[in-house]
Amino acid sequence: MMHFCHSPSPDGNMACPCGSTRRYAVCCGPCLAGDLQPVTAEALMRSRYCAYVLGHEDYLLRTWHPSTRPARLDDSTGDAVRWLGLKILRTAEGGADDRCGTVTFVARYKVGGQAHRLSEISRFVREADGWFYIDGVIEPESRSGRR
Ligand SMILES: [Zn+2]
Q1: What are the pLDDT digits (tens) for 102-121?
Q2: Ligand 1 centroid to 52 CA: how many Å?
Q3: How far, in Å, is the centroid of ligand 1 from the Cα of 105?
Q4: How remote is the CA of residue 64 from the centroid of ligand 1, in Å?
Q5: Would 93 disulfide with which of 15, 17, 24, 98, CB 3.0-4.6 Å?
Q6: How far apart are the first and last CA of the chain?
Q7: What CATH topology corresponds to 24-143?
């Protein structure tokens, strides 16, 4: 997930961009607002996807593990990215009592009128103050077709 764009501020009644079918105000909204900590690696993954959709750069950096966190996000890709949807394929560990976990997901987005799929296995670690994103391995497109 390297693209980044700015969007208008969210309406709490809208369907959460993470695809959960819950309202933003009771799904990822409180996490992005800093009112709640994501309890699981998957919840952090979902809230970070929302942060990409909504342009919450500070949230993305805040939830990035200090050992791998960039100084700032690359916001210079030029073409605006339109995120179309997130699908969580698999999770391994990442529960409320685990120390680490992985989340495999597919994110669809459009840039310059062209649709893309990003399939990634992200690694997360839980510290005393919550879950953090470490890094991700992008799967080749050919391996991301199964459901
Ligand atoms: Zn959500």
Answers
A1: 999 999 999 989 999 999 99
A2: 12
A3: 14
A4: 18
A5: 98
A6: 20
A7: Nuclear Transport Factor 2; Chain: A, (3.10.450)
